[in-house]
Amino acid sequence: MTGPRWRGGDVADGVSCVLADNAGPLTLTGTNTWLLAAPGASRCVVVDPGPDDVTHLGAVTQAAEDHDWTVEGVLITHGHADHSRGAPAFAAMTGAPTRAADPAHCVGSQPLRDGDELELAGLAIGVVATPGHTADSVSFVVDSLGLIVAGDTVLGTGTSFVAHPEGRLSDYLTSLTRLADLAGSGLDLLLPGHGPVVDDAVSVLRFYRAHRDERLEQVRRAVAAGAGSAQEVLDAVYGELPGEVRAAALASTLAQLAYLDETS
Ligand SMILES: [Zn+2]
Question: For residue 133, how far is its CA from the centre of ligand 1 (angstroms)?
Answer without folding.
Answer: 7
